[in-house]
Amino acid sequence: MSLQPLPHSERFDKASVTVSGTVTDEKGDALPGVNVILKGTPFGTNTDTKGKYALTIPDSAGVLVFSFLGYKTVEKEVGNRTILDVSMGLSDNSLDEIVVVGFGLKNKKETISGAISTVHADELSHASTVTAAGALVGKMPGIAFRQSTGRPGSAPDIEIRNYGSPLVIIDGIQKDYGSFAQLDFNDIENISVLKDASASIYGMQAANGVLVVTTKKGKRNQKPLITLNGYYGLQIPAGYNKPADAVTYLKAIIQDETYNNVPASARSVTPEEYNKWVQGAEPGYQSFDWFDYIWQTKPQTYGSLNVSGGSENTDYYISFNRVEQKSMLRNFHGFDRTNFQSNVNINLSKKLKVGLNVTGRLERNRQPGLPGDDYDFALQSAFRNLPTKRPFVNDDSRYPGISAIDPQFSYGWINEEMSGVYKSEVRIMQLNGTGEYNITNNLKARVLLSYWFKNYRTDLREKSPILYKYNEAASAYDIAYQGNARYTERYVQNSEEMTSNMQLDYEKTFQKHHVHLVTGMETKSANYPGVYFLGSPEANGIPFLTTKTVTYMRDEIPFNQNRLGVLGRFNYDYDSKYILELSGRYDGSYFYKKGKRFGFFPSASVAYRISQENFWKDNVFLDKHINEVKIRGSYGVLGKELGNPLTYLTGYNFNQGSAILDGREVVSSRITGLATDNITWGRVYVLDLGVDVGLLGNRLTGGFDWFDRHQTGELASRYDVLLPNEIGFSLPSENLNSDHTRGIEMNLNWKDNIRNFTYFLGGNFTFSRWITGTRYRPRWANSYDRYRDLWNTEGRFRDGSFQLVADGQFQSWEQIANHPIDQDHYGNTTLRPGDYIFKDTNKDGYITDLDMQNVTYRVNNGTPWLNFAFQAGASWKGIDLRAEFAGGSKFTYEQQWVMRYFDGNTNVSQYLADNSTWYKDIWDKNSGYDIGRYPLLTKGVNNWMNTHWPNSNWQTNVTYLKLRNLELGYNLPDHVIRKAKLAGLRVYISAQNILTFTNMPGGLDPEMTHDAGIAYPNPRLVNAGLTVKF
Question: What is the pTM of this model?
């Protein structure tokens, strides 16, 4: 905490009072570093090494607040005292913590009976991520995560217990995941994650769990506090599959031609030319490093300004912030975002309070316009551009040359001037109005009204490439290649969402009984109209669309998407010991036909804090060492919105092809299919059993949960009823199937201090798996087909793939000749040293697909089944250090393309080349073999079983642990900031993703899902930052 001295005029006012004293712990030992603050102001001081303090305050009517990590906060009125000694007891802070569960509902953590985890602002503020979602990774159990791409502005995939994408609630309003991801993490007060049946109060879209986000508010009776925060960082490319150098590339070509018996006269490279490349001395024979050319170290910057405070009847929090993340790809601009947040609350009377929250956001992406996916095109270019070529003719940047076998991938022309430009912009504005009226002391009414508007626009101008060659005879640059495909594309969407929420809230405590009842209604209406144009300009210089050049237009007609929910929740606890919660929601969706539109989704949870029993407190050992034991359980039904909307209506899909009728083109329409009224809500049954503990004065805290989630009503078609092919479509889907997810999660944390040295460490993990449930009349040709059908065999883990199981490699011709298994079905005559040996699992003497086994998990997609994280930190005399690790296991990476074989149209992966089998003499097929991890490196298919049949040599069950964040900070001491009249000043340096422990092949980033390892990598980020308060 940063403290500020009283202004000079106040410190020396005639009515001022100097209060001093000593702060001790329960044992009477001095407590250094305790924060001593004059309540309602940012001014104060800290105790010294002997626990002593002295503070001058304006008058004796003030209240001093004493706070210290691990101890209960103490408030003392000054009164007539000038000496004020304080004893601080160990804190049950983790129990007193307030947990926000949405709809204006808050509970103390000690009376929470569901599986709910919370992370607070101070834990998020140490992140230097671009997105709020990135700041959440690893902070709590139950969160499965994977940052599959590091593209500027991208966020990690986050799932709760591997259920799927969660519902997001921001300040009581349902939003999409992108709204959460692009929220500035410095504007967040806390995030609560509802992982079990407690999510049922959110109804229809809460089946995958709920992220409840609360943004910051101002504090009453506090003078304006202005906070400036900023950092400058450098992004460093890491974890990417690198292309080979020129010598390795030519070596692979030579070996392939040797393997294919290409005569010397037809060789692509002569021995003399190859030696020139090896020596690299002559002009034109130096390898060009396309990776270093395309990938660059680029900056990432962040700045924010916020002001907060309040009077007796108002509070406010206003912030502006901007982040800019440059793309590490050459000539790509990157991503920038500007956020605005304003939260104001006013007491109009003793009974009526109103509030207005205004949220604004502007996002922009910009990069060269390229065919297909712009980033993927550039990523492939690192391999498609050959290391024997350079980007420009005579290194003149005005004349890009042909550097790839497919000329359009030549990177020299990839810039906005030559290739065009792609731009996207997102503008968002949201207004939330709140009102709260105290009808009686125990009964209040609340209303929340929200309007959200989003303007999304993309503009693409894609030019055709023009590449050059040098004509030495004419001393001129001639066109060597010119494309003819040009595109101009524009999409504009204006979206609106309107939400209303009305509640009655009754809360009363009588004796040891506490009752809390909430009932309410929520409505949401939305529409997302848009228009799309695609055109083909006649020349590169035409930047706009005309009626003549437009080749396609799509008008997305708006229609209201309406939802309605009626909710109720009842909480009861006796002496914070016996705890009960009942909740339910009656939901309706526009998806379904009248009569099947509504569903009721109830839940119940109970908890027993056995540590609050008298027999426990009377036992000296238990009371002192085992401070908290809470046993809890929950069960409920959640609704899941399935299928597509309005499937109970028949209709037509427009623009489904065309035909020439009477000499002119006629665009056709196609019937959407059979209408069905057999689709309604899916129902998800969630069971959770857990225990929370606090030990050794609650310095050691933890929890454990076992959960089971059963989804019913999953959509499937009745395939035992066949329709004639002439109809053109099959039977519609119905609620027929089910699935399971089952798992465990655990967390353990330790916090303590030794005099003025404070430290913490902790960790968490979550493990869950999908299990196939019931299927509608499954059918298989034989038992083997059933064995391999993981998606339709009840009780099987629903992931992974089947492949041959490798059992080493052939080391010699003699070993191949003596091999008892016919592996290639030609008596092993096509095998060579370096080829894989496969297990004959069915013992029939042949290798076929009947020998394939499932030894993998989800392949190249999804979040890991096992997620874990560790954190540690310490602070001493203003210096603090923290490290955050996060990782995953039980997911599978399968190598493809340049990580699996030599594609003749591209360069070879340096990793694959370094680990492949080579001829001892690449010019001589009979020179023998240097056996590598992979088979002989040749172009295309190298023994079908080696490179194309699924086999375990190309698959890795990945485990990894990343040092996601390492931060060292320093808070300037009180006597220094007093002189500068500041409330606080902190400087820090930090690094993200700087260290990774993994078994991922080739040093690839283990979070990427691209099978060739050429996704945009998650960069290493090194930065320095500053936080100033005044």
Answer: 0.87
